[in-house]
Amino acid sequence: MANIICEELKAYVPAKDYPLSIAFYQQMGFELAWHMIDFVVYDPSGVLWRIGQNSEPM
User: Fold this and answer.
1) What are phi and psi for residue 35, nearest 5 degrees?
2) What is the pTM of this model?
3) Torsion angle (degrees, nearest 10) of CA 51, 56, 57, 58
C-alpha cells in the first residue's frame, strides 16, 4: 500500500445556529473552504469518505 500524506483535515458539523458555529470554528483556527471540488466514496467496510480538493474560484 502506498504511503498517503494528509495535508489538511476539515471538520463538518451541522449546527442549529450557523453564524455561531462559523465563529466558533474560525476561533479554533479552521478556515472556510468555499472553493472545493469534492466527492464521496463508500468503502466495503461501510465507511463513508468525503474527499475534497481546494480549487481556484472561477
Assistant:
1) -110, 80
2) 0.39
3) -110
Predicted confidence (pLDDT) per residue in 23-57, tens digit: 888 898 877 766 667 778 888 898 888 887 767 76
Q: Which three cell numbers stand for residue 3?
A: 504511503
Q: Which single residue is written with the C-alpha cell 476561533?
A: 27
DSSP string, 1-53: ---------------SSHHHHHHHHHHTT-----SEEEEEEE-TTS-EEEEEE
Cell 464521496 identifies what position?
A: 40
pLDDT of residue 49: 86
Tell me how far CA of residue 1 lies from CA of 16, 26, 34, 42, 48, in angstroms.
Answer: 41, 35, 32, 19, 20
